[in-house]
Design goal:
Layout: H1 4-18, H2 21-35, H3 67-72, H4 74-92, H5 105-112
Helix pairs in contact: 1-4
Length: about 120
Amino acid sequence: MRHYEQELACALLLGDALADPVRTQNSRQRWLRALRWQEVDRPPLMIQIPSAACVPPPWNEFAPVPYRDAFRNPAAMMLSQLIQSVVPGLILRDDSALAIRANLGTIQVASALGAHWTQREDDFP
C-alpha cells in the first residue's frame, strides 16, 4: 500500500526548492499584459508533457497515481496534480500557473442532483 501523504510531503519539498517567486511574478505580469493586448517580452508559454514519466530525476521516481486512488484519497489527488501539472512548469520554467485543482466537480454536481457515479476499473466515473 502506497503512503501518498509521505510521497506528497517529499514532492512538496522538492517543488518548493524549484519555485522562484520572481519568475512566477514575471510570468503573471506577462499573462496580464498579453491578455490586455499590451507589449510583452515574449508570448506566454505553457508546455504540456505527454506523461509524468517524461520528467527528470528525482521526479521520475514518483510512480503515477491510479485515478481510482486519486479519486478516493486527497493526498493522492494532490500528488497526481502536482506531478502532472505543476512540476513540468517548474522544471521547464514556462508560464503555466502553479495551481493544483481538485478533480471532483462532476461528482459534486451529480450528487447535488440526487445521482451517483460508478467507477469501473481505472477509468473516470
